[in-house]
Protein backbone atom coordinates (compact mmCIF):
# COMPACT_ATOMS: atom_id res chain seq x y z
CA UNK A 1 0.00 0.00 0.00
CA UNK A 2 1.32 3.41 -0.95
CA UNK A 3 0.25 7.02 -0.91
CA UNK A 4 1.82 10.23 -2.13
CA UNK A 5 1.57 13.59 -0.40
CA UNK A 6 2.20 16.79 -2.37
CA UNK A 7 2.54 20.20 -0.77
CA UNK A 8 0.13 22.71 -2.34
CA UNK A 9 0.72 25.91 -0.34
CA UNK A 10 1.04 27.12 3.25
CA UNK A 11 -0.25 24.12 5.25
CA UNK A 12 -2.34 22.53 2.47
CA UNK A 13 -1.37 19.15 1.01
CA UNK A 14 -2.85 16.85 -1.63
CA UNK A 15 -2.83 13.17 -0.67
CA UNK A 16 -3.23 10.62 -3.45
CA UNK A 17 -3.84 6.99 -2.62
CA UNK A 18 -2.28 4.08 -4.43
CA UNK A 19 -5.71 3.35 -5.90
CA UNK A 20 -5.76 6.80 -7.52
CA UNK A 21 -8.09 8.72 -5.20
CA UNK A 22 -7.14 12.15 -3.92
CA UNK A 23 -8.05 14.34 -0.98
CA UNK A 24 -6.89 17.76 0.14
CA UNK A 25 -5.73 18.17 3.74
CA UNK A 26 -5.39 21.65 5.17
CA UNK A 27 -4.98 23.54 8.43
CA UNK A 28 -7.21 26.04 10.16
CA UNK A 29 -7.16 29.65 8.98
CA UNK A 30 -5.54 30.79 12.24
CA UNK A 31 -2.79 28.22 11.65
CA UNK A 32 -1.91 29.49 8.20
CA UNK A 33 -4.35 27.35 6.25
CA UNK A 34 -7.40 28.09 4.15
CA UNK A 35 -9.56 25.34 5.68
CA UNK A 36 -9.79 23.56 2.31
CA UNK A 37 -10.00 20.06 3.76
CA UNK A 38 -9.75 17.90 6.85
CA UNK A 39 -6.74 17.96 9.13
CA UNK A 40 -4.40 14.96 8.93
CA UNK A 41 -5.47 13.74 12.40
CA UNK A 42 -9.11 13.97 11.33
CA UNK A 43 -8.21 11.76 8.38
CA UNK A 44 -6.99 9.12 10.84
CA UNK A 45 -10.37 9.16 12.60
CA UNK A 46 -12.21 9.02 9.27
CA UNK A 47 -10.13 6.02 8.28
CA UNK A 48 -10.88 4.33 11.58
CA UNK A 49 -14.62 4.95 11.22
CA UNK A 50 -14.64 3.78 7.61
CA UNK A 51 -12.67 0.64 8.41
CA UNK A 52 -14.97 -0.28 11.30
CA UNK A 53 -18.19 0.51 9.40
CA UNK A 54 -17.00 -1.60 6.47
CA UNK A 55 -16.41 -4.56 8.79
CA UNK A 56 -19.76 -4.24 10.57
CA UNK A 57 -21.72 -4.07 7.30
CA UNK A 58 -19.76 -6.98 5.82
CA UNK A 59 -20.19 -9.19 8.90
CA UNK A 60 -23.91 -8.45 9.22
CA UNK A 61 -24.61 -9.05 5.51
CA UNK A 62 -22.64 -12.29 5.66
CA UNK A 63 -24.83 -13.25 8.63
CA UNK A 64 -27.92 -12.53 6.47
CA UNK A 65 -29.05 -9.57 8.55
CA UNK A 66 -31.30 -7.05 6.81
CA UNK A 67 -28.99 -4.03 7.14
CA UNK A 68 -30.39 -0.86 5.58
CA UNK A 69 -27.97 1.75 6.91
CA UNK A 70 -24.95 2.11 9.18
CA UNK A 71 -23.36 5.27 10.40
CA UNK A 72 -20.63 5.78 12.95
CA UNK A 73 -19.86 8.80 15.11
CA UNK A 74 -16.20 8.88 16.14
CA UNK A 75 -15.09 11.13 19.00
CA UNK A 76 -11.54 11.43 20.22
CA UNK A 77 -9.50 13.10 22.92
CA UNK A 78 -5.90 14.11 22.39
CA UNK A 79 -2.98 14.70 24.70
CA UNK A 80 -2.52 18.30 25.82
CA UNK A 81 1.17 18.41 24.94
CA UNK A 82 3.19 17.46 21.87
CA UNK A 83 2.99 14.98 20.40
CA UNK A 84 -0.78 15.41 20.69
CA UNK A 85 -1.61 11.78 20.15
CA UNK A 86 -5.10 10.37 20.56
CA UNK A 87 -5.61 9.16 24.12
CA UNK A 88 -9.26 8.10 23.95
CA UNK A 89 -11.46 7.26 20.98
CA UNK A 90 -15.11 6.25 21.05
CA UNK A 91 -17.05 4.85 18.11
CA UNK A 92 -20.85 4.83 18.27
CA UNK A 93 -22.60 2.78 15.58
CA UNK A 94 -26.20 3.35 14.52
CA UNK A 95 -27.37 0.26 12.65
CA UNK A 96 -30.69 0.45 10.85
CA UNK A 97 -32.70 -2.48 9.54
CA UNK A 98 -35.86 -4.50 9.97
CA UNK A 99 -35.65 -7.22 12.61
CA UNK A 100 -31.94 -6.91 13.32
CA UNK A 101 -30.55 -9.40 15.81
CA UNK A 102 -29.00 -7.50 18.73
CA UNK A 103 -26.48 -10.26 19.46
CA UNK A 104 -25.31 -10.34 15.84
CA UNK A 105 -24.84 -6.56 15.79
CA UNK A 106 -22.91 -6.70 19.07
CA UNK A 107 -20.76 -9.52 17.70
CA UNK A 108 -20.09 -7.61 14.46
CA UNK A 109 -18.93 -4.53 16.39
CA UNK A 110 -16.72 -6.68 18.64
CA UNK A 111 -15.21 -8.62 15.72
CA UNK A 112 -14.37 -5.40 13.94
CA UNK A 113 -12.75 -3.94 17.06
CA UNK A 114 -10.84 -7.05 18.13
CA UNK A 115 -10.03 -8.93 14.93
CA UNK A 116 -10.68 -7.27 11.59
CA UNK A 117 -10.26 -3.49 11.64
CA UNK A 118 -6.55 -2.87 11.19
CA UNK A 119 -6.97 0.83 11.94
CA UNK A 120 -8.72 0.13 15.25
CA UNK A 121 -6.21 -2.45 16.34
CA UNK A 122 -3.26 -0.22 15.40
CA UNK A 123 -4.65 2.93 17.05
CA UNK A 124 -5.63 0.84 20.08
CA UNK A 125 -1.94 0.41 20.86
CA UNK A 126 -1.76 4.14 21.65
CA UNK A 127 -5.29 5.09 22.68
CA UNK A 128 -8.12 3.61 24.70
CA UNK A 129 -10.80 2.71 22.14
CA UNK A 130 -14.39 2.03 23.16
CA UNK A 131 -17.46 1.12 21.13
CA UNK A 132 -21.21 1.35 21.51
CA UNK A 133 -24.12 0.78 19.19
CA UNK A 134 -27.84 1.24 18.83
CA UNK A 135 -30.38 -0.52 16.66
CA UNK A 136 -32.86 1.47 14.63
CA UNK A 137 -35.93 -0.24 13.12
Explain what this protein looks like in three dimensions.
InterPro entries: KH_dom-like_a/b, OsmC/Ohr_fam, OsmC/Ohrsf. It comes from Kiloniella antarctica. Pfam families: OsmC. This is OsmC family protein. With 137 residues, the protein is of the alpha+beta class. It folds into two domains: 1-38, Single Sheet (N-terminal domain of TfIIb); 40-136, K homology (KH) domain (GMP Synthetase, Chain A, domain 3, 2-Layer Sandwich). It is 32% helix and 36% strand. The chain is built from three helices and six strands; from the N terminus they run βββαββααβ. Strand 4 and strand 5 (86-97) form a beta hairpin. Helix 1 crosses helix 2.
Summarize the structure.
The chain is an alpha+beta fold and 137 residues long. The chain folds into two domains: 1-38, N-terminal domain of TfIIb; 40-136, K homology (KH) domain (GMP Synthetase, Chain A, domain 3). The protein has three helices and six strands.
Amino acid sequence: MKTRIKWIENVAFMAESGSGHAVVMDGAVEGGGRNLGPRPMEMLLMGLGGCSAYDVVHILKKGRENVEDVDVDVEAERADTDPKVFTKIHLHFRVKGAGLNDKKVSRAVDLSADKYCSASIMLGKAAEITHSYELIE
